[in-house]
Amino acid sequence: MNKPTVVSGIRPTGFLHLGNYFGAVQNFIKMQNDFSCYFFIADIHSLTTHPTPGNLQAGVRQVLAEYLACGIDPEKATIFIQSDVPEVSELYAFLNMNAYLGELERTTSFKDKARQQPDNVNAGLLTYPVLMAADIIIHKADFVPVGKDQEQNLEMARKFAKRFNRMYKTEVFPIPRPFTAGGGDMIKIPGLDGSGKMGKSEGNAINLVEDPKSIRKKVMRAVTDSGPTEMNQKKPEAIQNLFTLMDIVSTPDTVAHFDELYNKCEIRYGDLKKQLAEDIIAYTTPIRERILEIHGDDAYLAKVAKTGAEKARESAIKTLQEVKEVIGFKKLF
Ligand code: TYM
User: Fold this and answer.
1) For the chain, which domains are there?
2) Nearest Cα residue to 208 out of 240, 172, 257, 249
3) Does 200 qualify as catalytic in the annotation?
4) What's the pLDDT score for residue 330?
5) Catalytic pick from 113, 140, 218, 273?
6) Is 113 labeled as catalytic in the residue annotation?
7) Considering just the CA atoms, what is the radius of gyration of the chain in Å?
8) Per-residue confidence (pLDDT) for residue 100, from 0 to 100
9) Cα dihedral 65/295/59/41 (nearest 10)
10) In this structure, are residues 276 and 242 in contact, taking their beta carbons and an 8 Å threshold?
């Protein structure tokens, strides 16, 4: 039986951070053994923020090296760069004809971006979910492993796939579903500034490639409060965020220890932060070392990108041919 298909991508707008890793990449690594996986670098999506050519190239190379360093295996998964598969842009053009201004304007990510960059509210931002849908459905994905922040974009992809199928009375596209390990809710890794989400543009991220000194500095600066005043009181967001990070990188014993101290109002945030920083460092150090190693290997990176592009195009060309037939494009020559 055919393995279910998985598609996901990351924008090359900087270094991968813990949010990207635990929200997405960790699932990629788990899924590559049992699914037919397409993991890509969303370089076209990253153009919405107008990177310089130099920054774009450096970002693509960085994410590619980071994918590999994290353990995505090009022998198991197809790893490719979005712009190496022009069929995606063609499908994007077709899907745009059935995507409506009202629904695109209403997406939270569009509203957020329009607020963040009021001088650059471009059409690419508006149709961002359409390109994302094209990325996903061009490989007929069954599952999309993404963090909680992408939930709405994925919902739009489902909507566009359904709409196309309905409009042309076809079943050419499976309806993609979110994937979360263990089947629970989609993950959201919090920031260190008391805010809900760790993110590149939020400036509150710890990168996988970050050196220990810098990790310690960032964690020690994390926002806290003056401490609990009542036994077993509910943790405010900034404190809960530190515990959430600890849940991910520390042992259950360590978490239980600090939880108990918190509940007894005996916690010293400095100790908790020191422990958290060391546990993040222990987690990321082997990854950082591999990133630095792979990043310099031009020949290997080029080979992975070339093989990935060929495999991804093969799949994309097949779907696009079906789509064109369904739409009614007919060759006159
Ligand atoms: P991007 O580049 O913003 O983020 C890449 C992945 O990391 C996840 N992520 C997080 N997960 C949990 N907690 C966080 N704090 C956190 N920050 C980031 C994101 O959910 C995402 O999975 N639009 C996408 C890229 C994309 C894509 C696609 C994804 C383009 N086409 C098709 C899947 C399928 C994006 O900007 O992700």
Assistant:
1) 5-188+298-327 (3.40.50.620), 212-292 (1.10.240.10)
2) 249
3) yes
4) 85
5) 113
6) yes
7) 21
8) 98
9) -20
10) yes
CA distance 6 to 179: 9
List the single range of 185-189, 216-220, 284-288 with lowest mean pLDDT: 185-189
At 202 the pLDDT is: 76
Lowest mean pLDDT among 78-87, 200-209, 295-304: 200-209
Annotated active-site residue in 30, 76, 159, 197: 197
CA of 121 to the centre of ligand 1 (A): 20
**Closest CA to ligand 1's atom 31:** 132
Beta-bridged to residue 81, according to DSSP, are 41
Contact by Cβ (8 Å): 242, 250: no
Q: Quick check: 2 pLDDT over 90?
A: no
Atom of ligand 1 nearest to the CA of 132: 31
What is the whole-number distance in angstroms between the Cα of residue 196 and the centre of ligand 1? 15
The pLDDT of residue 65: 98
Give DSSP secondary structure letters for 90-147: HHHHHHHTT--HHHHHT-HHHHHHHHH-TT---HHHHTHHHHHHHHHHTTT-SEE---
30, 200, 274, 311: the catalytic one is: 200
Coarse DSSP helix, strand, coil percentages of the chain, rounded to the nearest 5 percent: 60, 5, 35
Distance (Å, whole) CA 233 – CA 252: 20
Give the position of tokens 């097949």. 318
- Mind listing the pLDDT tens digit for each residue in 102-144? 999 999 999 999 999 999 999 999 999 999 999 999 999 999 9
How far away, in angstroms, is 67 Cα from ligand 1 center? 13
Query: Taking the model in full, what pTM does it have?
Result: 0.96
Compute the average pLDDT of residues 84-93. Answer: 98
Burial class (CB in 10 A: 0-12, 13-18, 19+), 23: buried
- Tell me, in angstroms, the distance from the centre of ligand 1 to residue 79's CA: 16
